[in-house]
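During the reporting period the student researcher (J.K.) took over the structure-prediction task from the postdoctoral fellow and processed the backlog of single-chain submissions. One of the processed entries is reproduced below for the supervisory committee.
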Amino acid sequence: MNKKKISTLLVFMLAIVIAATGCGANTGKSGSNSGSNGGGAAAEVENLPAALKEKGDISIKVIRKIGGDDHTAQFLAGAKQEGEALGFKVDTFSANGDTAKFLDAIEQAAESGVDAVVLSHADVEGAVDAVQKLRDKGIEVVAFDSLASIGEVEGVTLTSQKDEALAQYALDELVKQHGTEAKIVYLWVDGFPPMVRRNAVYQDVLAQNPGIKEVGRFGVASDNTSVDTQNAVAAMLAEHPKGEIDAIFATWDAFAIGATRALVEAGRTEVKIYGIDVSNADLQAMQEEDSPWAATAAVDAKMVGAVNIRLAAKKLAGEETPKTYDLDAALITQEDLKKSSEAVNVATLADIIPGWGTTDAFEEDWIKALKEANAK
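J.K. obtained the following structure tokens:
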């Protein structure tokens, strides 16, 4: 067979392959009612809302302003895992504290044709207008730990951890262990909605316990929050010898991590830390020998991400969703962790903290069925 015949035959075979591939390909949102849910998976779900069936492939963008910490990693992982379990395409992005990048990501989402956007820490100027643009384009929005004014945009649900409960749990444990005349350091930064709520509880506790003395405070949100906090606490320890500080209230685990390092390096582990938020790194620090980190109040960040995706799914399904939703908090103490014969991480916290990491909030029957269908 000469080269010309071989070339003709190859071209003919390639044409057949291309034609076959084109016929078998998913035509996308405009030509498919099979849903986003793993192709044929949606067809297996008898109770799948009609509005969701009609949308075809579902795409969700998760955009978080802060980043570089374990809480962010867990939040994004929880959102992505939940969305993909439903058969949705989920893209995640962290702006690592860069406001311009955060707002630009929202702008890009508005122009990309996504079906829904989950925002985290949309607490900057310009965020409300950006969300309004999303809604004007028919894009569903759920926003975690964001400006209250975003919730005034039609169709948006605001979610948050129960920040008041988080602060109350941590401070109650501090007062329980050190009394109503404790000398404390306050690690807190203004300008963030959850911090504002936590500070309100702190001020209330001080008012109820006038004997508590704040001997120092520090707070900064940056790419190096833990290091900055470590240096600041080290300076406070140099200024206040043993007996002049009893405890530290850290309103963010990035603060608690830095404070823990400073106390250990200075040999000042008699000072105890009461924090907020939890991660594997936090739990490891709490379980180290002679750790000063006595307790932390937290909500499972992975679960937070998952619940926000469920709310987005319900919106896409045309179902009613609340204007606001708060996720329940729990207190984790060193004493709780010592009950385990093995090292505890976020995945095994449920073994010692009842109900940790699980919730059936907004997990409708059709959501459960859709997960089961996509798991096959």
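The committee noted the following: The CA atoms of residues 162 and 343 lie 27 Å apart.
J.K. will present the remaining backlog at the next meeting.
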